[in-house]
Amino acid sequence: MTAVHLGMPTLPTAPRGVGHLRGTRSFPDEARDSLRNGQLRANLGHATTTIRGKRAGVVAELPDWEQLRQAGAALKRATMARLDDHLEELERQVTARGGTVHWARDANEANEIVVRLAREAGAREVVKVKSMATQEIGLNEALEAAGIDAFETDLAELIVQLGEDKPSHILVPAIHKNRSEVREIFARTMPDVDPDLTDDPRQLAMAARAHLRERFLRATFAVSGANFAVAETGTLSVVESEGNGRMCLTLPDTLVTVMGIEKLVPTWRDLEVFLQLLPRSSTGERMNPYTSTWAGVTPGDGPQDFHLVLLDNGRTAVLADEVGREALNCIRCSACLNVCPVYERAGGHAYGSVYPGPIGAILSPQLTGVEDNASLPYASSLCGACYDVCPVAIDIPSILVHLRAEHVEAQTHPTAESTAFAALARVMSRPRLWRAAQRAAGLGRFLSRGKPVLPRLPGPAAGWTRSRDLPTPPAETFQQWWAKENGGGRS
Amino acid sequence: MKVAVFATCLVDTLTPQVGIATVRLLQRLGHEVVVPPGQSCCGQMHVNTGYRRDAVSIVANHVRAFAGSDVIVSPSGSCVASIHHQQAQVARRAGDTALAEAAQELAGRTYELSQFLVDVLGVTDVGASYPHRVTYHPTCHSLRLLRVGDRPLQLLRAVRGLDLVELPGAEQCCGFGGTFAVKNAETSTAMLTDKMAAVLSTHAEVCTAGDASCLLHIGGGLTRLTSGTRTVHLAEILASTDGARTATQVTQPAVLA
User: Fold this and answer.
1) Nearest-neighbour CA in chain A from B257: distance (Å)
2) Exposure winner among A11, A247, A348, B61, fewest CB in 10 A?
């Protein structure tokens, strides 16, 4: 990393041992299992195909979509260039409106702040609006360790929590479950559920509603994330589809919002762009049903105690990487997940982080340091579908390639692969050696004993020949043919 | 026009018939073809696997090999995309500004085959004849990095006797992805399986594309399944005439109900 070359101290990454940014196994190992789960494959294939179609439909309606997208990208770039100034402005504005701002260097600090606030408020349970940031830092576990129950109120998060499962999608955390599986979870875990509950979506929604309503009404303490924070007005914003977020944001006495520092936009007007980009890209809707905005505390209306926790947890380190920093522009729409052929097949759990899919493959390794998530940058065929749908035009494939290089360059000892690639580079940059190597490769045809394809190969090539044939190398390369045709080959 | 062909390392070594077809096609269209002998690889495999430092010398060799060429044509969307989007960047990151500028300049003279035919030469009917049922897979880098759009389809529609059938889910990746196919072999295979299912559902005899690498992947899967559908590069189809067929193109059209 550039910072190291300049002799500057390396910026801290997200700490180990807390939160959900690291898996226990590599992506290929996780995928090996999930690819064999036929139910998962069917659920994901169905869900992503549906959302893909919806998104494509509503995006096509806007003649200025590309301009909007470029505007979103430009706003994000400009914001990141002066993020420190904007954050201080946000702090001033939130404070001026009666809120309290806390700065959390990492997951541990953020968890400590929220637990302390809950204790001070005397809360034994908290209701939660769906929030990626609190999943990232493992807040529920921290609250549980402090004897405080956390209730997820987003329908999909509720399904995941009741099923003692993990979220597998940014927008639809339970995308890997179909409705009959959801019915089974509700029937098993909801105390007062109707025993005749069917898998009719309306019945399931009504069961969740009854289950949650009781919790909303007795809750005194809520924790939310934020989609946006407007620096100039100190406004926080959450966009959602269900209204459960609105309940959390308005009913309890105390509201704590945990927000990654990159979620900020400088001005109120900037929301104009993002509130058009986000719903069309995420749920495939023209406008999301609920957009809540609040600034500080309003006497007699809503929570009377408001805290904003600004979370770094590796983000400053990401910001320091000239290529990788674009990942911070993400507005968590999950369009890249829905179009990704790798995500669609391997599923979200294979990424081992709360941020799955293409954006997760560039965000998680940067937040943790690439060596802690070294397999993720390779979990892509670089097909580029993610870039095409990204509403803020993040060049995900280029960042994946960049992170692969960061991983390779972080190795202190040569590996078998690096030795092979270095040797190949030497050969490929010297035409005479290259032609000799090609002749050697041509000898591979003796392996096939006259058959058109090679036998299954050992070593790294086995990954290829387990499921695909390799043609027997031809007796003559293209350049040999050309040389023969043109008497000596000089043109 | 004097046209230099960049075969790509893969075509040169494993599928020379694609390079030969490219030469034959351009010659048939009345152009003088040269094959600069110093050529090897564009460096994409190194860059995309994380070896961007090692790639610098490969880029330098490529720039040297084609320094004297006015127009370079290559039968690969992926390699041309790497020349356009990666080579200069790799050189610049390594601090070699002169190489970066030379690579940038070379990229401006380098065309993918279908773009060269349609945009530069302005032809869609290249006089080819290929009496087969064919489906076209738009490879990811042709589609999303080079934006070749429907140029290959325009060319295929003008081929005599060719029965072009639409490939369902055409824009989905086949799962090749260079070293992805080895490092994430199982996910790659899952993607390939769905691509093969789509190809086979068309009952095409031939699946074509503008990249020999993706075709190696799809074709390797199809022969492993002992499928009757084979992969043929776009250049080979466009090079085919009634009088001249290469050895891989001798089958007669299947009779379909």
Assistant:
1) 30
2) A11
